[in-house]
Queue: 4 jobs
Job 1
Amino acid sequence: MRDGRGDDTEPDPDPVRFSDELETWLKSPGPKTIGGLGEQFAEKGFAVILLLLMILPATPLPTGGITHALEIIAMVVALQMVLGRRDLWLPKRWRARELGTTFTGKAAPFIVRRIRTFERISRVRGKRIMESDLVLRLCGLAIGGLAVAAFLAPPFSGLDTLPSLGAVVIALAIILDDLALAGVGFGIGVGGIALIMTIGAALVRFITGLF
């Protein structure tokens, strides 16, 4: 109905936030597998899968020793981004791998809250750049490199947290079309790698000094 101001259109409803979509999927019945995640978020499937794979190593929560497996899968997914694949390929066993009760029960609420924090401070910046093939490949390369750094971090040191967080922020930047957020993710990741190298070198000097 016209309101007398010459405009008979209604305002668009608020867009559904990614965090709400993710929370709805996590709470829906049925197994939560990596393959199912990719199918649910097909348009941004690569980024969403990388986000979920790397966010567990980026949290201070107990992981039950599954972070290395998740990081290896993340490397494979990131490599496909670098190669410019449009459809995700994973071995059948990996696609059927469930995220587990540690993730869906304990980690998921923490993860959704953190994503909402980023959604509040993020806005669409450089959408066309973020959707370009070259930038997506570079983001895949960065996330893959950070997954490798997290994998190689000394066990039980907590040094895998920053590289993993950098990967998570870059993946979120792809999902939210925020070029500035991608820059933040790169910065966090580089800082994490520098920390691993610095502390690693100190450990090597300490160990060699004992002999």
Job 2
Amino acid sequence: MKRDPPPNDKGKSKALKPKMIEDEHYPLHKRWCIEYADIMGGTKYELLPWHKVNHEINLINDNKRYHYYLPHCPHSLREEFHKKINWYMDTGWWEPRSVSQATLMLCIQKKDGHLQTVINVHQQNNNTVKDVTPLPDQEIIREDIA
């Protein structure tokens, strides 16, 4: 992998040499792919099983309706946007539904030019009862356990 040289005040640049040659890189990569297959296996096409959750989110107003807007996406990124939506649906992460309200989704262009979809949940967050209970002091817990 070739990297661009860092900017130099004197106008001179030195090319960075990779520390590992290709012959050393491939066996290491192969070993890691086998050893960490559970996290390096690519996209999982099934959702994790549902578990019973012992918490709830308390709402200020249970009957509040949220305003829904269609996703805003620049014309130059529409093709990538539709590819991303189709990918979400093919993997089973999303499924088409008819609903009376939904969460706002924004399309933001990353620095590298790719598309990032962002879910805007400000309206839902503003309708939740804030939990002001402080977290326990981790140092005291460690001392008690020790």
Job 3
Amino acid sequence: MIIRDENQADLDAIHKLVAAAFQRLDEAVLIDRLRSDGTCVISLVAVDSDEIVGHILFSKMTAPFRALGLGPLSVKASRQRRGIGSRLIRTGLDRAMEARWQGVFVLGDPKFYSRFWFDAALAGGFISRYSGPNLMAVALGTELPATEGVIEYPPAFDSLG
């Protein structure tokens, strides 16, 4: 299995994978909007035997420092719990660090994302419509440049229910 940047030929397969993973179209449409809005920064696929089995997207956020939002993350149902999502997250965080992004926010399960150093306490000083125990942050250096302020996901996220 390889992790690589998405390309134009992957878009239909990504759309189908994400829709199947979430059992609805909302997240697949969100990804399409993030691409068309120009807020998609990192979009990676996991490929095994020429089949896309996983996808992750990082989009540019409004924050007091250079920040990305992780999500959506999707793995084909029959391939879950095999480390594909973890590899996508680690590769994405490495790419973000290489590109000098300073932090990443995620809205998700703390038990899962804490394995990648995401911490709800680190996001606790930030004001967001998603504030709460499932909003987490990770610093891509020794620490976040700010510990409070307003953060906003790209406008495309407003369409999610």
Job 4
Amino acid sequence: MSAAATALSADVARWREEDVAVAPRSYYGEVRRRLLRDPQALVSIALLALIVGGALLAPLLTGQDPIKGDVAARLQPIGAAGHLLGTDEQGRDVLARLLYGGRLSLLTAVVPVLVATTLGTAVGAVAAYLGGVVGAVLMRVMDMSYAFPAILLAIAIAASLGAGMANAMIALSVVFIPPVSRIAESATKGVMVQEYVEAARVCGADPVKVISIQVLPNVFSPIFVYASSLVGLSILIASGLSFLGLGAAPPAPEWGGMLNSLRASVYVQPLVVALPGLLIFLTSVGFNMLSNSLRDALDVKHG
């Protein structure tokens, strides 16, 4: 083959490569690719999908009533006829109560994190943007909560408000607002030194628009990662409040409340008693694993 033909073949191959070149991935496309290639992320997503799916599809997965009991069938072991995971101290089907209980447990854990993330982000962003006395006062008020452990503060607030799922969610929201605001303030300060924010401020742009358009979209990643890690802690504290009688009222199925009602039967059916605690543990671990994977996936620039 002549030198001219060889050169022509090389040019044709190069043109073909350029024609099929793949466009650069977007930021979120790269995040998605990282998550799909992370075994920890896939395991946590699959685990949480099973738990959430079981709670949402509870009526289809079990034909048992989670509240109606049968004293004659109380404390049946795992695998008992008609009760795959046994029965509790009142003869209620444990599988049904676990599936339906997931609804209240997940709701009590997720809603406070959403509320705290929204309010805490607003407080932290405003404190960092305004600075000065206003910013210092806002953050010192937030810092006061750090004098108390989260669980003790949640118990104190829930006890003062009274037992009930709504009051438990209010208590958790109040507990989580300060740490979220601290993350938001730190991230906002990092964005405030950017030229486009300085330019908007110099031009006299409305502070609300600067925060909502220029600042918040650029502090989303660290806040989102931290909020996802709070869900695991939230379900632990929410279950603890229910265990103490400060959460969902009986006979409503809820994992923490189930642990409380079953604890007297631990020597009779220990495996049945352990099931609500196992679900609390797996859900918390699942959200923590997902949070770690999101932190790595969102850090694209260091990939």
